[in-house]
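Request:
You are asked to prepare a plain-text protein record giving the amino acid sequence and the C-alpha cells, at your earliest convenience.
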Amino acid sequence: MRKLVHILAVVLNLQFGCKDNPVNTEKPENRSPVIFSLTVFPDVISPTDSAIVICNALDPNGDTLVYDWITDSRLKIKGAFANERSLYHTHENSRIFYPDWINTPIDTPWVQCIVRDFKGGAVGKVICFIIKQ
C-alpha cells in the first residue's frame, strides 16, 4: 500500500507539476548590440594610402555579431566588388578603405558600420576622416 501511495504521488506531481519548482517559460528579452567606439587609423591619408576602421562592439545577450560596412562614392572597401560601396554580413570588426576618386585638395569621406545580431537587434555609427592631395 505504501508503494502504491508513493507511485500515485509521483504520477500526480508529473501530471500537475510541482508548485515548489516553477518553470520559467518566458523568453529572455533581446537587447541590441552596443558600439563602444568606431575609430579610424590614420585619420588623415593621401590618395594613394589606405585607412583601417575598427568597430569595438558587444552584444549584451552574448549573441554572435555581424558587421555591415557602408561608405560614399569617394572610397573603396577592401573585399567589396569594384563599384560597390557597401559590404554586408561580415564577421570582422575592422575593414580597410582606399580612396577611389578625389576632386578637391582636401576631402572628408565617411564610413558607417552597422552591427547586428541574428535576433533583430542593430546599432550603427558613422566616422569621417580626411584625404589630402
About this structure: The chain has a mean pLDDT of 87.
